[in-house]
Amino acid sequence: MADMDLKLRKVDIDFSDAKVHWNPDCPEFSHVFNAFSVGAPCIEPFLIKVMRQVNEQLPESASPRLRRDIELFNSQEGRHYRMHMKFNTVLHDAGYDTRESEAALKGDYKRFLDEKGLKFCLAYAEGFETLGPVLSGFFFDRSPALMERWDDASIFLWLWHVAEEYEHRHVVNSVYKLLYDDDYWYRLYGLAYCLGHLFHFVLRESNRMVKQDLATGRVKGRVRTRLRFGRSLAGLFAYAQPRIVFVAGRPSYDPAKLPPLTQAMFILDETSKRYGILEPT
Ligand SMILES: [Fe+2]
Ligand SMILES: [Fe+2]
Q1: Does residue 171 lie in a domain region?
Q2: Which numbered ligand comes closest to the C-alpha of 50?
Q3: What is the 126 CA–ligand 1 centroid distance (Å)?
Q4: How far is the CA of 214 from the centre of ligand 1 (A)?
Q5: Which ligand is nearest to the Cα of residue 161, counting in written order?
Q6: What's the pLDDT score for residue 1?
Q7: Structural domain count, the chain
Q8: What residues sit around ligand 1, an ion, with C-beta below 5 angstroms?
Q9: CA 132 / ligand 1 centre spacing (Å)
Q10: Cα(95) to centroid of ligand 1, in Å?
């Protein structure tokens, strides 16, 4: 499939004018994803370490294409988390102190790698990658106000990130199927574990940011703020839940078969034009 030719785009976003409240309609929606952004420099290096271990375990029969996809997957994730680290300094400069929770999340991933074994880590990574196409759909289909402002640094960070998540959606799934004979129930366990672990982090951190906005007067109106926060979370859950349960939760789930997303391809093309592509050696 043409859209699945992974590319390493040399993205380096200038966040000097970036906004913390980048969703013009809803500061609390921004915080739900700002919390994800805080988690990105923890989880994405974990994915890379897992895929490096996987590389050493691949059977001789693994195709050169899959090996190349793993390499490009790691390079894309490397760019993602470095750009999120850069954006996260905007959050720190605006007074949101996330260092402790970031360190705790990093500690969780270190423990997974040290103690829980490759099958668990890969199933967790597969669960996380299941979110990629779901979040892509959420941004591209359900958030038209953001698409209109796709060029704003903070919005672009997310649109580019989820578009590349869509592009590499098949990689971890293919590897999991190959190494663990498509163990369905364990894949569901990894998915459920990852979602529980990650959403707990996102809920706690976004709630902290929303509370801080109210305490500092950056956002006014406690009831309206809480309602908007609740609506943002409910909108995301309402979109994600059926797609996770009825699509990704099926034994036949194969992300490679999800159809290309026109708007994601638009963002990827624009990104390639603007930043250029690093050709594989
Ligand atoms: Fe990523
Ligand atoms: Fe990814």
Answers
A1: yes
A2: 2
A3: 12
A4: 31
A5: 1
A6: 44
A7: 1
A8: 77, 80
A9: 8
A10: 25
In a domain? residue 65: yes
Residue 222: which domain range?
25-276
Is 11 inside a domain boundary?
Answer: no
Tell me the average pLDDT across 237-243: 95
Q: Quick one: which ligand is closest to 79's CA? A: 1
CA of 125, nearest ligand number? 2
Q: What is the pLDDT of residues 85-123, one digit of tens each?
A: 999 999 999 999 999 999 999 999 999 999 999 999 999
Question: Ligand 2 mean position to 217 CA, how many Å?
Answer: 36
* Distance (Å) from CA 91 to ligand 2 centroid: 23
The whole model's pTM is what?
0.96
The pLDDT tens digits of the residues spanning 48-83 come to 999 999 999 999 989 999 999 999 999 999 999 999
- 1 domain residue, yes or no: no
Separation of 204 CA from ligand 2 center, angstroms?
Answer: 23
The 3-state secondary structure of the chain, one letter per residue: CHHHCCCEECCCCCCCCCCCCCCCCCHHHHHHHHHHHHHHHHHHHHHHHHHHHHHHHCCCCCCHHHHHHHHHHHHHHHHHHHHHHHHHHHHHHCCCCCHHHHHHHHHHHHHHHHHHHHHHHHHHHHHHHHHHHHHHHHHHHHCHHHHHCCCCHHHHHHHHHHHHHHHCCCHHHHHHHHHHCCCHHHHHHHHHHHHHHHHHHHHHHHHHHHHHHHHHCCCCCHHHHHHHHHHHHHHHHHHHHHHHHHHHCCCCCCHHHCCCCHHHHHHHHHHHHHHCEECCC
Ligand found nearest the CA of 130: 2
